[in-house]
Amino acid sequence: MDDIRETAWDHISGEKRATFSTSEKKWIREIQRLHEQYPDEVDIRCVNKDGSILAYVPVEWLRIRPKKKSNLSAEQIAASKARLELARQKRLDDLRKADAAVATMEGGSK
Q: Is pLDDT above 80 for 58?
């Protein structure tokens, strides 16, 4: 049961703030980020031993929106895959170069 992650909104009609409770890391980080950015609007009430969080947030922030659907052609999908692979390869090359530079520096300092 320790693996269960949940998020809950509690809002009473007419109230200006809602209660937001979560044990999901992405929402915990988001609430903490929003608290830093809007300390007067986000009131973190409790951080539990398991890391879950309970906060008061403005009701206006509650939004439910469906995931955007994309209608990409096969050619667009192929181009996107190629761009992603190229970026991935560039990142790996950059990491390898950085590792080599560190190894060179460590070898030269002995």
A: yes
CA–CA separation, 89 and 96 (whole Å):
10
Helix (H, G, I), strand (E, B) or coil at 103: helix
Q: Which contacts (CB < 8 Å, 24+ apart) does range 78-86 have?
A: none
Asked if residue 81 lies in contact with residue 61, where contact means CB atoms within 8 angstroms, the answer is: no
As a residue count, the chain comes to 110
Which residue type, as a one-letter code, is found at position 47?
A: V
Q: Which two tokens stand for residue 53?
A: 């969080």
Q: What is the pLDDT of residues 24-56, one digit of tens each?
A: 999 999 999 999 999 999 999 999 999 999 999
Record the pTM: 0.58
